[in-house]
Every structure is written in structure tokens, then in C-alpha cells.
Design a protein that fits this description.
three-stranded antiparallel β-sheet
Length: 241
């Protein structure tokens, strides 16, 4: 029998199958848990947990060291992403437009829009980020961060080929990287994913979805959230189209 699929046609990951949520922890909020990626230079403090948030929103306080950046340009097919810079400077490529945001400025990325971002200058950047819906995004990012900590990614922070095939096939409704072209990825990863699963690779790993590292969310980040725990953009907003 083939692997179960969700409504998008993507194989379901083990977390979504009965009995694979370790000790039912996804039912409890992970607010304040800290996830770090030593390769890309990102450190994230969860302000909301999309598994328990009524709007399925992930809101996080993102810290990016000098030289840090997201692993590669990508698209979120169904999720909207919003950024508000608290400290430092961040470069954004959203669709065909490039901009540099400073503290107090914001950026929105509609679903299906190719985008990229990177830290600028010698000062650590701090950004409050919202992704909605965010539960599957959180799972794949937490897994990628965990793989990076364990040395299972390349120099950019992307999982190695067989792992990428398994994860990105299962999560093609959540994130698609710009290179290789999506159609090539669909055939390449679709062909390699069964081998990766046969070798024991999973789309996401339960042990990476929770962090023992905790931090009290900072007041300046919480001040940007509304009563529903959603990011309230302020200051100058860069047009994403």
C-alpha cells in the first residue's frame, strides 16, 4: 500500500498519523521554546504555537547573526508570511522587487510568491515573523534546524539529497525551493523519496519538534501582537508586489 496522502496529494508525515506525536506534546503550547540553526545563523523564539493557536498562526522572534540568511529562495504555496524588523537591517527579495528594511519597517509575502532574505551589516538583526497557516511550516523548519545541528545539511543549510527528497515531497504544499525548477524537483524528488523512506528517512522527526531551550519572550516583540496573538504591523510597510 502506498504512503497516505493529504488533500494536496502530498504524503502525510508521521506526526499526522495516529500515535506518532510523542506523549501528545503537540497539544501543549511550545511558546518560549528556542530553535537554532548554526549553519544559517538563525535563532527563533516561539511567541505562538500554530498547533494550539486558533488561527493556526506561527509568530516567532527571529534573531539573525551577521552574515546569516535563509537557506535559499523559496515559495510557500498556501501560507502568507509577514516580517517586522525590530533591530538591525534585513534585505528582502519578494517577487521581482528587492528592498532593505530597517527597524520599524515591515514586509508582507503573499502565498505563492518567490522570496528570499538575508541579514545586512555588523549588527545582529531581530525580526518578528508570522506564518499563517503555520503548523506544517513549523514542523519542516524545526526538522531542518535539527538536521543542521546534527550536521546533516549542506553549506547553505539544505538537507542532503535523499532527506530533501523525502521531506520536500511530503511538504510540497508548504515550501518549494526555487532551484532546481519545481517541475524538475517534482520528478527528481518523487523518484528518490521512496528510496529515502526505504533507508529510514522521515519527512519530519518528532525529536526535533520540541526544544528544551527556553527563553522568556521579550516585551518589545510581544508588544507587536494583537489580542489574538497575531502580528500587528507598524511603521513603514514595503509593498511585496
Amino acid at each position: 500500500m502506498g504512503e497516505e496522502e493529504d488533500t494536496s496529494g502530498a504524503p502525510r508525515d508521521p506526526i499526522e498519523k495516529a500515535g506518532r506525536d510523542p506523549r501528545g506534546r503537540l497539544a501543549s503550547s511550545r511558546r518560549g521554546q528556542v530553535f537554532a540553526n548554526p549553519v544559517t545563523g538563525e535563532r527563533v523564539v516561539l511567541l505562538t504555537d500554530p498547533e494550539t493557536h486558533p488561527d493556526r498562526a506561527l509568530v516567532a522572534h527571529l534573531f539573525v547573526r551577521p552574515g546569516g540568511r535563509v537557506a535559499a529562495p523559496h515559495v510557500h504555496p498556501v501560507a502568507a508570511e509577514r516580517f517586522h524588523v525590530l533591530v538591525g537591517r534585513v534585505g528582502f527579495q519578494v517577487g521581482g522587487r528587492q528592498s532593505e528594511l530597517e527597524a520599524g519597517q515591515s514586509c508582507e509575502v503573499p502565498p505563492g510568491t518567490l522570496h528570499d532574505w538575508w541579514q545586512i551589516g555588523t549588527e545582529e538583526a531581530q525580526v518578528v515573523v508570522e506564518v499563517t497557516p503555520g503548523e506544517r511550516f513549523t514542523r519542516i523548519i524545526a526538522t531542518t534546524f535539527g538536521l543542521a545541528r546534527d550536521g546533516h545539511v549542506d553549506a547553505r543549510g539544505l538537507p542532503h539529497l535523499l532527506q530533501a527528497a523525502v521531506s520536500l515531497t511530503a511538504y510540497r504544499d508548504t515550501i518549494v525551493f526555487a532551484s532546481p525548477p519545481p517541475l524538475v524537483q517534482r520528478f527528481l524528488f518523487g523518484g528518490l523519496a521512496p528510496l529515502g523512506r526505504l533507508l529510514g528517512k522521515q519527512p519530519v522527526y518528532p525529536e526535533y519538534l520540541f526544544s528544551p531551550d527556553l527563553a522568556e519572550p521579550r516585551p518589545e516583540a510581544l508588544a507587536l501582537l494583537d489580542e489574538q496573538g497575531r502580528l500587528r504591523l507598524g511603521g513603514t510597510t514595503a509593498d511585496a508586489t
